[in-house]
Amino acid sequence: MPTTAHVSPDEIRKGFSKAMSDMYRDEVPLYGALMELVAETNTRVLDAEPSLAQQLQRTGEIQRLDMERHGAIRLGTATELATISRLFAVMGMQPVGYYDLTPAGVPVHSTAFRAVHEQALQTSPFRVFTSLLRLELIENPDLRAFAETALAKRSIFTPGALALIEQSEADGGLNPVDADEFIRQALETFRWHHTATVTGAQYQQLSDQHRLIADVVAFKGPHINHLTPRTLDIDQVQDAMPGKGITPKAVIEGPPRRNCPILLRQTSFKALDEPIAFTDAKGSHSARFGEIEQRGVALTPKGRALYDQLLNAARDALGAFPNEGNAARYMQLMEQHFQAFPDNYGQMREQGLAYFRYFVTEQGLAARGTADQPRTLEALIAAGHIDVEPLVYEDFLPVSAAGIFQSNLGDAAQSHYAANSNQAEFEKALGRRTIDELKLYGETQQRSIDECTQALLA
Ligand code: OOG
Ligand code: NI
């Protein structure tokens, strides 16, 4: 019997990302305002910087820019994490990287679900920063037991979503009708709930332990807490936010402003309190916020080590968590320390600090097979037969993520946990290993080199 062909997981992810964005825009009007601001800024930057426009054209990023966004959720149990991993797999998203947030006083560890191949990323770069609450860090045994019981009682996936995940696993994909239904069912897991599953007093107890614990334990599901568009100039957006009635956090996380952006810069604004019906009383909860980000070139292990070293040095010199009061000094320290990081793609490439993609040029094709055609990669680049473009960073940064968490949880939430990174425990809960992002960048870079040699020298 003929079967209807399966929809590609990349198309399902693209459809899901759009559905999620529409849902969030309906529920959080400020998100719509932010999207407009980012779109206006991006248009202006592309008009003003033809070389950037050309670079993004070359890498294909220009086509994905408008739909590019990431979200974040916080889960309560190992089973939830294992099942969300299967749900994301239906959309071609895999867990990349391990982030330990406990050194920053946030009792979670995390991964990012995303597509892993450059072609899949081109169809949809949608990512979800996914955290797992570490209940073992709740000190009060009664409260911990209460949280465990509350979480054990909830089911964050619809029966329809679970059935379609199983069907996709068994059949190796979903047909168009089932794929649409999957998107509808999967979306329910990320929806906001106006009712809590606990009493007002229980919520308060959880919140007193840590605001994040209340956010996870007191609700039916892991509401998406932000969706972040990608801007080409985060400083412009940061400056324009107050004019749109949006108050950003004091400092932009990540590296300082540069001519050649590296890794990731992010800023966020705190969401308003939203009314919540507890089982016995009315109250409010604040969880949903807005964030924007600017992405730069992915760094090699050597480049990343230099980044971490400079960031830590600047933070040590500041001697405190960046805040309103010390923001100007922090930015000055960052500028000063990052002088040591070459702000030039050519130098970054020569020194092995960043990853790049290589593209054959018209000139290269025209000269193919001629007697004086250069025969090495470097000579082909020098002759203009191959273009080199930065490979964009697709992941997150733990120190930045901690800053984003903190700014949205409020300063009162700063706790101290003995740093106890536990990737093995996280992967046990996940039911699989997380993927090393550096391996992915290395592979993409190598594929682009192979394509060039194949096209010019084979
Ligand atoms: C996630 C915060 C981290 C980012 O972009 O670094 C994050 C959360 O608050 O759940 O989204
Ligand atoms: Ni984020």
Largest sheet: 5 strands, mixed
**CATH C-level name:** Alpha Beta
- The number of domains is 1
Mean pLDDT: 93
Form type: globular
Strand content: 5-15%
Name given to the CATH homologous superfamily: Uncharacterised protein PF07063, DUF1338
Q: If classified by CATH, what would the architecture be? A: Roll
In the sheet with the most strands, the strands line up as: 2-3-4-1-5
Bound compounds: 2-oxoadipic acid, nickel (II) ion
Protein name: 2-oxoadipate dioxygenase/decarboxylase
EC number: 1.13.11.93
Pfam families: HGLS
Family: Belongs to the 2-oxoadipate dioxygenase/decarboxylase family.
Structure write-up:
The chain starts with 8 loop residues before the first helix and ends with a helix. β2 (94-100) and β3 (108-114) form a beta hairpin. It has one domain: Roll (2,3-Dihydroxybiphenyl 1,2-Dioxygenase, domain 1), CATH 3.10.180. The protein has helices at 9-27, 29-48, 50-59, 61-64, 78-90, 118-123, 141-153, 159-171, 176-188, 200-209, 211-217, 234-240, 301-318, 327-337, 345-350, 362-366, 377-382, 398-409, 423-430, 437-457, and strands at residues 69-75, 94-100, 108-114, 127-133, 227-229, 264-269, 274-277, 282-285, 290-295, 356-360, 386-390. A 5-stranded mixed sheet has the order 2-3-4-1-5. The radius of gyration is 23 Å and the shape is globular. α5 packs across α19 and α8 (159-171) packs across α9. With 458 residues, it is of the alpha+beta class. It contains 20 helices and 11 strands. The protein binds 2-oxoadipic acid and nickel (II) ion. Belongs to the 2-oxoadipate dioxygenase/decarboxylase family. Its EC number is 1.13.11.93.
